[in-house]
Amino acid sequence: MNAANFAPWPRDGVVRVHPAPMELPAESDDPGPYRFDDPRRRTQDRFLMRYTASTVRGCLLELLDWMRDDEAAHAREASVEVDDDPGFVDPPSAAGNNPLEAYLLERRVATMTAGSPTVVSIDDPAVQAKLDRENGVRAVLDAKPARDALLEERGHEVHLDNAAVRLASKTGRDLTQACALALYDWPHKPDVIHYRSRHNDTEDCWAIYSHVSVYCVHEVPLSPDIPAHREALESVAKIWDLEIPTDWVAGH
Amino acid sequence: MPATNIERIQEILERAHKESITVPLADQAAFVQRLLGSRLAAACLGLKDTRTLTSWATGGPIRSEDARHRIQVLFRVTTAIDQTFGPSVAAAFLRGSNPVLGGHSPMTLLADSAPRDSEPRIIEAVEALLTA
User: Fold this and answer.
1) Residue contact B87–A97, C-beta within 8 A
2) Candidates B77, B97, B124, partner chain A, best to mutate (most A CBs within 10 A)
């Protein structure tokens, strides 16, 4: 099974925005925090993932989603009664710098590719139907959190579909991690999982298993001097109303 | 000297954890107050006013076990992010709607939940932030 028709592997490679983009994540005894990380604890055969996208914009959408405002947090902070010296209330250390600039400061953009990787798409209904019958995936689907999140009133059984694989919660992550493990255990394990960004259907993302050899096509610093980088950041910042760092403003 | 980015991040996370156990609580409270500001730090600790935080930061008694634990979690989180990206990212992280936390901010989760429950979840979100 492959995703040749559903999501062909980009001929020019895929992109990762990271301080060390060709580096693999660290091995740990615990499951990773990302969508397709290995969910097992203390396993000898742990797989790791490189998370990439077709475009810099796709990478930034996935990278910066934690920066979206939380109204409840603002309200709580505003409700705190302050009777301190003003220097203690809004210290320049936290208030004076743009967090977006600080977070992106040392990042680089690598375009990488692999020989002819076997790709499955988590959005492919045929793949979903097969995964739906996998024990590890069924265990998550049949558990209460997934039933509460996905089953309609008086529904009988939750199936793996596009809503399930895009669920933005711990349950959603448990589900996609179970899928990644099931795929890893298939006799002909895929090299890459294709998925669409939860934030934009048009952005293709690619989780590359660590058993795949990838090589760097080229690598450059993430920079406002590169129009494609600047446009990507402007686009994402606009969606989430993030303050664009001065250096990144066009014409600066 | 860490050889790779990921080793550097792991070292920072481990050091932040160790310091949250060994550094005196008053010093931890003073650190988060100084770095984040009184209002944000107090909000994260579930306090209604900044007076209590100032008292803790100057050696005043911290009577509740949950309050002591919350200071340690906030210190651990703030130290790790500050050392990696600086204080503005630490502040933004605490206020942001975090996908690893189901859209909750670390601030509200820490302030409203028992810290023994919120700590592993918030640390997972920190690790995601630092390694992404």
Assistant:
1) yes
2) B97
